[in-house]
Design goal:
single chain; mainly beta; Maltoporin, Chain A; 22-stranded antiparallel barrel; five-stranded mixed sheet; 7 helices; about 55% strand
Length: about 850
């Protein structure tokens, strides 16, 4: 019986990306000089992988090494590249129908997205938060959720790891890991491509690859994808906007080089570029008209002296949240043109837009120091340059001639998000014949994040442009945050017997963050005691923290196909400095005293454990895996938005406790080509300590005892795939997936936040083609019944807070929803 050996990695501190790349390349070159290798190595690996696939074996990298899904003592859901292509899944949000308790929100001007697992995630409002679910792309943990907005393609496999994973994935994996592995060069030359047209959103997608060996030791894979959607969002009738249908387009190109000059050394380099353009950052957001049932006015320029609002703009939107028609107006003419320079929003007359450029690079090399020791180096580069512009009043119009409407959007901003991230990890792994093996590692990350935006939080230019500059924005501010993180980790496996294995490890993390805040411009009419002065500079605001994250697991392999495990795990996500502070409230208050401690949020920690079983039966044709878990999260990082005072509230929840059961099954039936698979999760996630949220009319509200948001009690899916031979060179392909969610609370602001009711999602695929995949024609349906559900909610900005001007107190709120039905006609080939 083969016993999987845990391997350990060691990483050395790097002072910067260039030095890390040069050192990695130099070490790799020196190691490769002694001998040359044969292309047979790639052929042997391909044949081995094919043999494992035929034996219903799935390989995952849940502990930074290749292990089988059924033997690794981690709760993992693996989704193969063939499934992703079959259902035309090309973005992270669409993965949710295959992974219970996974919730993904895409869009917004903050972090750009949110991923949560088992009811635990991080706010999409603030880009200062690291994600509680680590986003691992080809072995590099990306700190920016802007990548969630990007599509993916040519993927080998997606793995979703549930529960804290800090030992192997570091400081941003308190809730789990979403890992994407792109395809690598093949041992023989291959070329393939896919083209599809989507009928509901009027979009088309084309992608392709060419892959093969350049020499006996060097392989290459070039892949590219272009996606253009004309009607990503359709606007309501009479919406005063230039673009009545908001669209998007995206290009992704990737080059992979695999080099194996000897049987002791191999290197893999991936470079990817993504370009995304869209017609606004808001995304699929509907406005719910709240208990009062009316579209509340955009109430601006409140005067404490009179108790009245100076401007009240009719909202304009209807109260239908189910028709997928959005009211996303352009900026009001009075507010549109005078953007502090430089800004890409200048000259666009208040028309929303978004642009992002993302460069990703990863160099991984492996060197066998001996037959028992392997050294692995992973160098990562991530460069994000994103800008968008939108009006965050979500409504507003002014009466025009002949009953027309003129744009009345307020609350515009033009956030520039720039990220430069360099990381270096080294791992030393043993593979001794004895009972003990280890992995040692070190990790270094250097990150610089710039958040630069002009904003309309007051919209003072309704009273008049800035008489000095002519600008129509309230202020311009920049948050520059530098992060340096260093961690060391090690794990050990001890085979007590041939059947019983004890494994465990410890990661130490030391992180430093320094933020500076500058406000070069404040509108002349706002300059006074309640705002920071123009030219304000905070000086360095420091945050430091360190942490030990231990983990221990006991695994008992009763038979080759029956495993039991029990784990104690901890997780850690560092705190930091909020970058949502506005010059009109929290920042101005801190500037008066020079004390910026109110902007600092604490680190998030998790501890708990799980017990599980992994089993296969009937010649490995039937798989049944089950896990029961219990985790406690202390100081959960939370951010909410007060729609009346127009301020962001950052806090640490006292304690969140999650417990539940995950089930996973698959069945390769006796009927030729027919397979079933399914998942089922029960989740109980609630706050179990005082958690004060400042949102109630009578003061802060204690959410202790309330259920966590995005935490359905029951969720699951069942899928069927059937390949029916029609001859030696023709087959019919039928697939379907049904996903259920029992519903969940969508916000963390009050005791009666909106709850999304239970819902089903249905996907289907019918195709005809060659059994070996040489060609296929398919009709693909995602969300066949056009089920619309709400992912998150939050107050609509600029609500009237008092009953004056004849206005009732505003209660409208924003519902970020999923995309509706998508129907694809798809053709693919591969030779």
């Amino acid at each position: 019986m083969n016993i999987m050996r845990a391997r350990i990695a060691s990483a050395s501190r790097s002072s910067g990306l260039r030095r890390a790349l040069m050192c990695g390349a130099a070490l790799g070159g020196l190691a490769a000089m002694p001998s040359a290798a044969l292309a047979q190595e790639q052929t042997d690996e391909a044949e081995a992988a094919a043999a494992l696939a035929n034996d219903n074996v799935i390989i995952v990298q849940a502990r930074r090494q290749n292990e089988t899904l059924q033997e690794v003592p981690v709760t993992v859901t693996a989704i193969g590249g063939d499934t992703l292509q079959k259902y035309n899944i090309d973005n992270v949000a669409d993965v949710t129908s295959r992974v219970p308790t996974l919730n993904v929100q895409v869009g917004g001007s903050g972090s750009g997205g949110q991923i949560s697992l088992r009811g635990v995630g991080s706010s999409n409002i603030s880009a200062a938060f690291d994600s509680a679910v680590a986003f691992d792309f080809d072995g590099v943990v990306a700190s920016s959720m802007r990548l969630v907005q990007s599509g993916f393609f040519d993927v080998e496999q997606i793995d979703v790891l549930r529960g804290p994973q800090s030992l192997y994935f570091g400081k941003s994996a308190t809730a789990g890991v979403l890992s994407i592995r792109s395809a690598n060069p093949t041992a023989t030359w291959e070329v393939g491509g896919t083209g599809s047209y989507e009928f509901e959103e009027k979009g088309y997608l084309v992608n392709g690859f060419i892959s093969g060996p350049i020499t006996d030791t060097l392989g290459i894979r070039i892949a590219a994808q272009y996606n253009k959607i004309d009607e990503f969002q359709k606007l309501q009738a009479n919406t005063p906007a230039v673009n009545q249908e908001r669209g998007l387009k995206e290009f992704i190109g990737r080059v992979t080089l695999a080099w194996q000059p000897s049987d002791r050394f191999s290197a893999n380099l991936k470079v990817q570029y993504t370009r995304n353009e869209n017609d606004g950052a808001i995304g699929t957001a509907e406005v719910n008209c709240g208990p009062n049932g009316r579209a509340d006015e955009i109430a601006l320029l409140f005067s404490p002296a009179t108790g009245r609002y100076g401007v009240a703009i009719p909202a304009g939107y209807d109260c239908n949240t189910r028709d997928q028609r959005y009211y996303l107006t352009d900026a009001a003419a009075t507010l549109a043109s005078g953007v502090p320079l430089p800004s890409k929003a200048a000259g666009r007359n208040g028309v929303p837009f978004g642009e992002s450029d993302i460069w990703f690079g990863r160099l991984q090399w492996e060197l066998d120091l001996s037959e028992q020791l392997k050294l692995t180096s992973v160098t990562g580069i991530l460069n994000v340059d994103a800008v968008d512009f939108d009006s965050y009043s979500y409504g507003g119009f002014f009466p025009g001639p002949n009953g027309t409407r003129l744009p009345g959007g307020a609350g515009s901003s033009d956030p520039i998000n720039k990220l430069e991230q360099y990381s270096q990890e080294l791992r030393l792994t043993s593979d001794f014949d004895g009972a003990i093996n280890f992995m040692l590692g070190a990790f270094y990350e250097d990150r610089t994040f710039t958040f630069d935006t002009a904003q309309q939080g007051v919209n003072i230019s309704f009273a008049g442009r800035d008489p000095v500059t002519g600008y129509t924005y309230d202020w311009d501010k920049t948050h520059l945050t530098k992060t340096e993180a260093l961690s060391f980790f090690g794990s050990l496996t001890f085979d007590i017997t041939e059947q019983l294995q004890l494994s465990g490890g410890l990661r130490y993390t030391d992180e430093k963050k320094v933020q500076t805040i500058s406000v070069p411009y404040v509108h002349t009419f706002l300059q006074g005691p309640n705002f920071v002065r123009p030219g304000f500079f905070s000086g360095p605001i420091n945050f430091t923290d360190d942490n030990f994250s231990p983990e221990i697991t006991l695994r008992y392999q009763a038979t080759d196909d029956l495993n039991f495990f029990a784990s104690y795990k901890t997780g850690y996500k560092s705190g930091g400095i909020d970058n949502s502070a506005l010059p009109s409230n929290s920042l101005s208050q801190a500037a008066l005293t020079g004390d910026f401690s109110s902007l600092i949020f604490k680190s998030e920690k998790a501890k708990g454990g799980e017990v599980g079983m992994k089993s296969q039966w009937a010649g490995r044709s039937f798989t049944l895996n089950a896990t029961a878990f219990y985790y406690v999260f202390d100081d959960l990082q939370v951010q909410n938005f007060n729609a009346t005072t127009i301020q962001f509230v950052t806090s640490n929840a006292g304690q969140l406790t999650t417990k539940g059961i995950d089930l996973e099954t698959s069945w390769r039936t006796p009927v030729e080509g027919l397979r079933f698979s399914g998942n089922l999760s029960y989740l109980d996630a609630q706050y179990t300590a005082p958690f004060l949220q400042p949102g109630g009319a009578g003061g802060p509200i204690d959410l202790d005892g309330r259920r966590a948001s995005q935490s359905p009690e029951w969720s699951g899916n069942i899928a069927a795939d059937w390949e029916i031979p029609l001859g030696d060179s023709l087959a019919l392909f039928l697939s379907g997936n049904a996903a259920y969610n029992s519903g969940y609370i969508t916000d963390e602001a009050t005791l009666n936040d909106y709850k999304q009711p239970s819902f089903w999602l249905l996907d289907a695929n019918i195709g005809i083609g060659h059994p070996d995949g040489k060609w296929r024609l398919s009709l693909v349906a995602q969300n066949l019944t056009d089920e619309i559900f709400t992912i998150t909610t939050g107050g609509r900005p600029f609500l009237a807070g008092t009953n004056n001007n004849g206005l009732p107190i505003g209660d409208d709120f924003i519902m970020t929803q999923n995309r509706g039905r998508q129907i694809f006609a798809q053709a693919s080939f591969r030779f």
